[in-house]
Amino acid sequence: MQVWKEYQEQNKERFLNELLDLLRIPSVSARTENNADTAKCAEEVKKRMIEAGADNVEVCPTAGHPIVYGEKMMDATKPTVLVYGHYDVQPADPLELWTSPPFEPVIKDGKIYARGSADDKGQFYMHVKAFETMMKTNTLPCNVKFMIEGEEEVGSNNLGIFLEKNKAKLKADVVLVSDTSMISMENPSLEAGLRGLAYMEVEVVGPNKDLHSGVYGGAVANPATILAKMIASLHDENNHITIPGFYDDVLELTAAERAEMAKTPFNLDEYKKDLGINEVWGEKGFSTIERTGIRPTMEVNGIWGGYTGEGAKTVLPSKANAKISMRLVPNQKSETISNLFKAHFEKIAPPYVTVKVTAHHGGEPVVTPTDSIAYKAAHKAIETTFGKSPIPTRGGGSIPIVALFESVLGLKTVLMGFGLDSDGLHSPNEHYHVFNYYKGIETIPYFMQYFAEMSK
Ligand code: BES
Ligand code: MN
Ligand code: MN
Predict the structure, then answer these.
(1) Residue 435 host element (H or E)
(2) N or C: which end of the chain has fewer CB within 10 A?
(3) Does residue 275 sit within a domain?
């Protein structure tokens, strides 16, 4: 629409500068030393929502970081879109690998470099600016509710409670989320599913204290060696996960569905080159896209034990630890998989050590419908602004709260993300393309318009 275009063109620079200001706040949810920053960020989001034209804007306290809520109820007979996003970010370390400081955003080669630029500040803020566009041009075609949380990167535990307590307040027709990736700007796509997560921590304990590795080595099992062996045994020679029952609930795709998936544009050579690897790796019998989209996987996120400081210290460590996560697909259940992991890991422990297995946060996998009015509206909106039909994809990442939108609020979600997998989410030098930021702001009002029209 011409009025939107004009408004956005006139306010382009301010839209960008406002995002840069938001990126300067280190709202790292995992770190208590950043709690004041995280709280400040919530207040800032509140202020921006009010300025954009939302009503009843509030910072809702939780047992953890607050949730920012705001709404614009135009007319009870019109449909309501609940926009979800998160203002918290992952820790920025390793800091030495950033080419510019993570909380001092810079624009280089058309990209905004900062922690949270793509995940998710740059993406949820597109919604605030799209909303402002419609408010200031008197064109908002439906009701909008915003729920921007501060704990997505640490598992959204308190948001689950918030949903339970605020079912009436959050009444809507659909949830709209921009916190996922597209294939590329040339190949726009819409994620139609997210994987679930089961996150475990293990400790392998041997002798009751660190020992001299010459005096005791060779006679007492080394927990680091045992842990390494135990972890290695969790995949077989075909890279299948060896935990008994692990695949029992996995929903297999039909040959036709897999054939459809195989049409997704994907360049293996570029993929390898981007990542600096000679070969890809993964479960035998599945393509790279399938391995990250429709298959469950297991990763060691961290492993430690013994001496890791400067120089050499000859020691046989008393214990070794690892953080191990599993990505889940429909119809696996996070709790079931956690239990299977725990039972298996305890069972494979040799008698020379004792193991302790604990579960961290988890989340359930989701598949979002591609035949709903909301999905069709998103499809048409992207077609309008990209001049190309978006391809449905299955995302490898997780947004645990999405499953609860369905189970607690009875709402389906549309995942209309504008990031790219190569944006460096959770990595050093995270960035978001300025082009994508503006494209998102341009596309969202069309979603609202089409959704309102198609809902009639
Ligand atoms: N935005 C991501 C999830 C994502 C990224 C989905 C790219 C699809 C494509 C989200 O912020 C995230 O990082 N989620 C975590 C899970 C959470 C419980 C820490 C994840 O996927 O590791
Ligand atoms: Mn995110
Ligand atoms: Mn994230």
Answers:
(1) helix 434-455
(2) C
(3) no
Asked if residue 324 lies in contact with residue 362, where contact means CB atoms within 8 angstroms, the answer is: no
Testing ligand 1's pocket by substitution, the residue of 328, 399, 415 carrying the most ligand atoms inside 8 A of its CB is 399
CATH code where residue 338 lies: 3.30.70.360
pTM reported for the whole predicted model: 0.95
Distance 198 CA to ligand 1 centre (A): 13
Provide residues with CB under 6 Å of ligand 1: 119-120, 152-153, 155, 179-181, 194, 197, 361, 363, 395, 397-400, 425
Q: Structurally, how many domains does the chain consist of?
A: 2
pLDDT per residue as tens digits for the range 323-354: 999 999 999 999 999 999 999 999 999 999 99
Name the residue among 38, 78, 73 with its Cα closest to residue 146.
73
Report CA dihedral (63, 67, 70, 76) to the nearest 10 degrees.
-70
Q: Which residues partner with 300 through β-bridges? A: 324
**C-alpha 188 – ligand 2 centre gap (Å):** 19
164 and 230 housed in the same domain? no
Summarised one tens digit per residue, pLDDT across range 42-82 is: 999 999 999 999 999 999 999 999 999 999 999 999 999 99
Determine the distance separating the centroid of ligand 2 and the alpha carbon of 426, expressed in angstroms.
Answer: 9
Nearest C-alpha neighbor of 67 from the set 125, 146, 3: 146
Residues pairing with 356 in the sheet: 203
**Ligand nearest, relative to CA of residue 422:** 1
* CB 177 within 8 Å of CB 119: no
Atom 4 of ligand 1, residue of closest alpha carbon: 397
Residue nearest to atom 13 of ligand 1 (CA): 153
> Domain range spanning residue 224?
196-250+296-363
3-state DSSP assignment of residue 451: helix
